[in-house]
Amino acid sequence: MDKNHSTRKLTVKEFFRLFPNEDACLEHVMKVRFGLRHTCEACGVVDATFHRIADRKKFSCAHCGAHVAPCAGTIFHKSSTSLQTWFYGIYLFSVSRNGVSGMELHRALGVTRKTGQRMARQIRILMEKADSASARLLTGVVESDEAFVGGELKRVGQGNYRANKSIILGMKERGGRMAARVIPDTKAETIRAVFEKTISRSALIHTDEAKHYALLSRENWDHRWVNHGKHEYSRKDPMSGPNIHTNNLENFWRNFKSSVRGTHIHISKQHAQKYVNEFVFRTNNRHLGNGMFDALIAAV
User: Fold this and answer.
1) How far apart, in whole angstroms, are the C-alpha atoms of residue 102 and residue 121?
2) Do 165 and 120 belong to one domain?
3) H helix count then E strand count, the chain
């Protein structure tokens, strides 16, 4: 694939040119996972050539005949769904800006509803796996904010309006990566545990005025905040640093919630993290263009 291929969006026409049949898809999995030339584990020959075995989803070492099954241990293993159908489903996820539902896969791929839902779950797992491969502690200026996502209470008296919503804590480097975790509550100890695993102690954290962020100052994190309650959304840093705001995360939440309403209608607490991972993957890899598709295939 040429350099421009990896930086621009793959069109449907290009997709079927690259992957016209099962053989092309299988060869691509082999190239990504092992390479058509690699050191054979059986005979130890360096840069050994591997050839496709006719009518089987395996390749054979030209020196000793040892077999390699590129789909073994992947989401494609023992799947009755064709490789080309799997590839096209992954392609749809990689080019979508607003997410893809299992029902959309059911309609677009001509598979059953159950298969469409299963494929969507597996592809979201690939997104999490691919994004985790490049995960690191967030540094520089890191914005933090939480969002409440889910259904509304059906009648007065059912409890706090947040009662049946998923709480998602977002953390985003200014101009860089982001991470997001579904959390059970907004208690200080909960926030602390996530920050310790996600944000470098050298980072400068920007938040709103929520009380649970008081732990940052108490525990000597470098912390600045804006007061959304007083309609303050950006202000100059008194220490002459970058402007204080959480606007990048606010934009992410706005797009995420809009996409959930338009694509999924509703997401349950049980599966909320999977949907969050999907959108975080897109945010962290949007600069890759077609590389998003390649990254997902590599993650199988």
Assistant:
1) 8
2) no
3) 10, 9
Burial code (b: 16+ CB inside 10 Å, e: under 16) for 166-176 equals bbbbbbbbbee
Instruction: Quote the crossing angle between the two packed helices 83-95 and 102-109, to the nearest 10°.
Output: 130
Do 154 and 110 belong to one domain?
A: no
Q: Are 206 and 142 in contact (CB under 8 A)?
A: yes
Query: In whole angstroms, how far apart are CA 241 and each of 86, 125, 178, 224?
Result: 48, 38, 21, 10
Residue 167 lies in a domain: yes
The verdict on 125 and 154 lying in the same domain is no
pTM (two decimals) = 0.85
Report yes or no on 3 lying in a domain. Answer: no
Q: Which tens digits make up the pLDDT trace of 190-213?
A: 999 999 999 999 999 999 999 999
Residue 277 belongs to some domain of the structure: no
Same domain flag for 258 and 165? yes
Residues 125 and 150 both lie in one domain: no
Burial class (CB in 10 A: 0-12, 13-18, 19+), 290: buried
Q: SS3 string of 86-146? A: HHHHHHHHHHCCCCCCHHHHHHHHCCCHHHHHHHHHHHHHHHHHHHHCCCCCECCEEEEEE
pLDDT in tens, 10-37: 889 999 999 999 999 999 999 999 999 9
CATH number at residue 218: 3.30.420.10
pLDDT at res. 159: 54
Residues of the domain holding 214: 141-270
Q: Please name the residue that has the structure tokens 């840093």.
A: 237
The total of structural domains in the chain comes to: 2
Tell whether the model's pLDDT for residue 3 goes beyond 50: no
